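2024-03-11 09:14:02 INFO worker-7 job=invfold-0412 stage=load source=structure_tokens
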């Protein structure tokens, strides 16, 4: 079976799943990558899936450790002077884990991202947000508060 415009690869993937010899291609490199991933990672079996999980865990742990070391997501301003540095030292020595640090110093669990543009007349940063509703069920909204340049 051949599919010259396979897009995300659903036809070659299903053909391969049924045991047919399948070929797929696409001019769009993103579509070709999705097809390759569907056939080689998703359809790669339990051994490949376990290898991907191990790689994901290693990357997550490395990023978690670095973000914690830098204090990016933590309320470091709430701890006593020198306490954060002591915690980071303990983390770097391996005496504590990022989770243990987060239990002592609060860590963010949600993030809001908004692109801003600069108003050419006032110089103010203006957020480009499609909605100020953060959580409909919790009835949580964001309020725009002026912060002069």
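2024-03-11 09:14:09 INFO worker-7 stage=emit residues=149
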């Amino acid at each position: 079976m051949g599919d010259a415009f396979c897009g995300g690869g659903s036809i070659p993937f299903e053909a391969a799943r049924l045991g047919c010899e399948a070929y797929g291609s696409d001019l769009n490199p993103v579509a070709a990558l999705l097809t390759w991933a569907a056939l080689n990672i998703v359809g790669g079996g339990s051994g490949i899936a376990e290898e991907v999980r191990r790689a994901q865990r290693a990357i997550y742990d490395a990023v978690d450790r670095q973000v914690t070391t830098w204090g990016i997501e933590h309320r470091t301003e709430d701890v006593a002077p020198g306490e954060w540095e002591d915690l980071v030292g303990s983390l770097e020595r391996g005496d504590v884990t990022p989770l243990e640090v987060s239990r002592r110093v609060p860590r963010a669990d949600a993030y809001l991202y908004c692109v801003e543009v600069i108003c050419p007349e006032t110089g103010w940063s203006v957020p480009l947000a499609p909605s100020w509703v953060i959580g409909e069920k919790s009835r949580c909204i964001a309020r725009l508060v002026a912060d002069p340049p």
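2024-03-11 09:14:09 INFO worker-7 stage=report msg="Residues 2-44 form one domain."
2024-03-11 09:14:10 INFO worker-7 job finished
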